[in-house]
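REQUEST FORM: STRUCTURE PREDICTION
Request ID: SP-0412
Submitted by: Lab K.M.
Chain count: 1
Length (residues): 477
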Amino acid sequence: MEIQQLRDHSPDKFASIALAPKGRTDAQEGNWRAQEKAIDDWLPINARRNAKWWYSAFHNVTAMVGAGVLSLPYAMSELGWEAGVTVLILSWIITLYTLWQMVEMHEMVPGKRFDRYHELGQHAFGEKLGLWIVVPQQLVVEVGLNIVYMVTGGQSLQKFHDVVCHDCKHIKLTYFIMIFASAHFVLSQLPNFHSISGVSLAAAVMSLCYSTIAWIASASKGRSADVDYRLRATTTPGKVFGFFGALGDVAFAYAGHNVVLEIQATIPSTPDKPSKKPMWKGVIVAYIVVAVCYFPASLVGYWAFGNKVDDNILVTLNKPKWLIALANMMVVVHLLGSYQIYAMPVFDMIETVLVRKFWFTPGLMLRLIARTAYVAFTMFIAITFPFFNELLSFFGGFAFAPTTYFLPCIMWLTVYKPKRFSLSWFTNWACIVIGVLLMILSPIGGLRQIILKIKTYGNVTHHTQKFQLMMMIQDMQ
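STATUS: Completed
RESULT:
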């Protein structure tokens, strides 16, 4: 979609008009407002506002039930039965509550909609401070998720290849990540949330299917003969850091808050029928699906394998082969949708900056270059750091906890100002404390695991090179 008004006025002229509203003539005011509306209608978040409540349901399922569900049995092995069940239930309740607050705050100001997370932050904390508080954390979450999904998508493709072709030559994970990324070079050109609805619906269905396969296959396999429910680590420091990292894994599993306002922006709203009603209906359905996916997969997976479970439950399962292969392909389809759900707000930010700040002409070429560059960036980082569970732990606490647990509560206290010492006041402060603890503790465990994994990779590489050198010497002799 080309915006023709840019051809009638130079960027400098539009900039001067925008920055000096008192000096604008009526004609300039009309041209400037028409230009602003045209840009708003072109940007991904504002382009379409005709979604129904079920769009909210499957978009939220796609956003939340992703790679995180596959790591929950591993998190249980770091937490143990008592702490693990408590953390899972509390996280489900707290994040549902904070998500409800964000849905309510979407239209807290009559006649205005906060279509983006940072717009709500700007209203709560101020124009400049709100940007600095929200945008960096939201970008870490969304970009971090896209990187992790690149890794997980590549791992699932690799697992599928190894299962269906056991005797085939081993192919490095790097190439599978590149194959997974190639699909996103195409899908990223879909302009807005409405255009990715089909992909998102397929992803939501796949998430329910593969998580069900994971726990049913675990239950069918039964409890291992040598199952051990003691914590995975054997030393006290290892248990402590493992516990911290597991908190990050759980926080990662509830990340839908980072796109909830953008999803709600696609729903029409009138004074009689505000968008929060269909949005909340969709959220309730989504959270029921989340519970159906998360609790059986995490509990049954841990029950079956104990502390021997891998950081991806589908990697632990090997039989029946056809079912595991199918589940891994379902993961791939789901991650295609999840990546796009979290990439869309990033695309919106990138295109907003390019058009409003650098005065690029909105159109196909701008999106082709900007979005392709972003997909290539996430692919490169994923290839460089393919540490699945450790990335979940680190990002889970560092940025997921603030945007999911306590930022919505702080904004609620700032904007709605509930009565001091009321139930709402106590609840929000409790969520803030929990979120701060998650933000501080879980990255410590995740960072430690990343360092250990890097050392392990280094040792493996060293021994592999040493073995290859010995073989070469034997061949020469």
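NOTES: The two ends are 69 Å apart (CA to CA).
Reviewed by: T.R.
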